[in-house]
Inverse folding.
């Protein structure tokens, strides 16, 4: 089966690493693992962060032109003609201006992974892009969501039979840790991984710094935090920890690390902590669990699809500084002996439900069923 793949928010070969780029790459790998041939059909970044109406119009026009070019390439045989079109991440700031046109012209299924629908954007700066998302979702034959919360919102625009939960996944084996050093109750090794940028990431860092500052004031200092990550807001992040009294004795900034470097740090750690403000689900949380670490996280978005509270870690109300601080304090003071068991439960859960093979099997089953149920194209469609 030939798949035309498109990620309008961020192409899979974008030079700046991010969770968005990683998930796009993982989806391509899962589709290929399922035996499909994947062609990255377009690299147009359709994101308009500020609602600029003229920019949205220009991108819509460019998307139409790119769709026409693709159709010419398929007709000429210079590009493999797809059996399905697969778009990753669709929302009002980054609509798909290409896929719906191509899928309709070729009479092939239009499939989406990770979409959100915000009716409040029907008016205002993003109205044009919102309508494009609405059109695409109404046309979609199938929508996979890595976040169960999004499914509820999508039910207002998609019929239930088109919506499917796809558990977040990663190369779990790449994060496996064979053995860990014993836990020292007098020196718990905490770790977190996140890009440093304004917005929700910075809000999470502020809650993290505030929480650790609170437990320090209670005299709880039997821990050290390693922060993996970098970005334009790094100085702001460092200033936040200093402001809340978390000094160099208790925190280390590892900077941007490669995956194997990150795994080595996780292997030497005891507990992963992250407030997860407005987090879709959190690839870093899944990688930590795959490495056998228990997790404390804010109960945001699809985080509960990864972290099973009181089994593989603890979930606290999103944005609740008091609850987050209290949970960290209990974990480093009185719940130390359960950390290894919880971490092992997380690693087992990841191996059973969050592998690329598991994602490939689900995608294969659903897409093959869709293809078998579709009526053969009539003579009036599929012509370019």
């Amino acid at each position: 089966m030939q798949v035309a793949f498109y990620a309008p928010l961020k192409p899979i070969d974008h030079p700046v690493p991010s969770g968005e780029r990683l998930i796009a790459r993982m989806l391509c790998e899962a589709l290929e693992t399922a035996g499909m041939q994947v062609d990255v059909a377009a690299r147009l970044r359709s994101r308009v962060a500020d609602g600029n109406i003229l920019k949205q119009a220009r991108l819509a026009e460019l998307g139409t032109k790119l769709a026409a070019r693709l159709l010419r390439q398929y007709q000429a045989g210079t590009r493999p003609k797809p059996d399905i079109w697969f778009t990753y991440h669709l929302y009002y700031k980054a609509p798909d201006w290409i896929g719906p046109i191509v899928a309709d012209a070729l009479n092939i299924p239009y499939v989406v992974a990770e979409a959100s629908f915000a009716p409040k954007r029907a008016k205002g700066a993003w109205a044009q892009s919102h309508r494009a998302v609405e059109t695409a979702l109404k046309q979609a034959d199938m929508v996979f969501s890595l976040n169960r919360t999004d499914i509820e919102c999508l039910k207002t625009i998609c019929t239930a039979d088109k919506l499917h939960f796809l558990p977040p996944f990663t190369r779990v084996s790449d994060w496996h840790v064979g053995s860990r050093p014993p836990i020292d109750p007098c020196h718990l090794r905490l770790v977190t991984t996140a890009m440093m940028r304004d917005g929700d990431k910075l809000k999470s860092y502020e809650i993290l710094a505030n929480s650790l500052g609170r437990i320090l004031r209670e005299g709880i200092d039997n821990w050290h935090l390693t922060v993996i990550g970098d970005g334009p807001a790094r100085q702001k992040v460092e200033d936040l920890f200093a402001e809340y009294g978390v000094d160099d004795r208790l925190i280390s900034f590892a900077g941007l690390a490669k995956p194997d470097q990150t795994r080595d740090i996780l292997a030497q750690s005891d507990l992963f902590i992250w407030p997860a403000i407005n987090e879709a689900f959190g690839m870093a949380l899944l990688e930590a669990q795959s490495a056998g670490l228990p997790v404390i996280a804010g109960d945001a978005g699809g985080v509960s699809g990864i972290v099973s509270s009181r089994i593989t870690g603890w979930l606290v109300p999103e944005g609740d500084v008091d609850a987050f601080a209290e949970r960290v304090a209990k974990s480093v003071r009185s719940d130390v002996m359960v950390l290894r068991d919880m971490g092992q439960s997380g690693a087992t859960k990841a191996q059973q439900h969050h592998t690329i093979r598991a994602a490939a099997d689900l995608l294969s089953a659903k897409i093959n069923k869709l293809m078998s149920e579709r009526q053969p194209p009539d003579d009036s469609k599929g012509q370019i």
